Structures are given as C-alpha cells and as structure tokens.
Amino acid sequence: MSFMNCLRCKHYAVTAEDLYKLFSFYFRVLAERSRMDKRRWARDYAHIPRLIDHYIVAEGLRRGTFKTAAVEAAREHARSQPHPFWSVDLIDSLEVLA
Description:
Blueprint: H1 19-32, H2 38-45, H3 47-63, H4 68-80
Helix pairs in contact: 1-4
C-alpha cells in the first residue's frame, strides 16, 4: 500500500480522468494535518499537496494535458464528495499506508 513514492516517479502518469481521485487523496492528506503530530506531518506528508499542485497539476496544465475547467471541476467534486477510498470511514488514518 506504500504508493506515495509514485508521486515523485518520472513515469507516473495522471490523466484528466484521474484528477478526481488525485484531488480526493489531496484533500484527505490535508485533513490529516490536524490529526497527527506536526513533526510527522512535516516529515511525511507536507510535501504531497505541493507535489500535486506544482508537479502534477501545473505541469499538466502547462503541457495541455489538463484543461483548467476540468481541474477545477475535479477539485470541487473531490472537495464536496471525496472518492470512497479516501473517505475517513474507509481508512481511519493515512498512517496505516505509510
């Protein structure tokens, strides 16, 4: 289940269809900030939202892989109705995946 290193892999591919799942993960990671020790957050999780924003989304927009409207729609969908896998009910804490 340790897949977080995939975000750094140069072979990691995200399509527009993946954005909803990616943003669901993004918001779940952000939600963990208040649930864990600040040092653990800084060491293990704080980089993930930045990677998604600056490496995956910004680069996808720059290359034309993603359209701005699709990114914003996926982001809002994930914020209001996260993918079931990233729901708090399914995984109590991201620490089980680390």
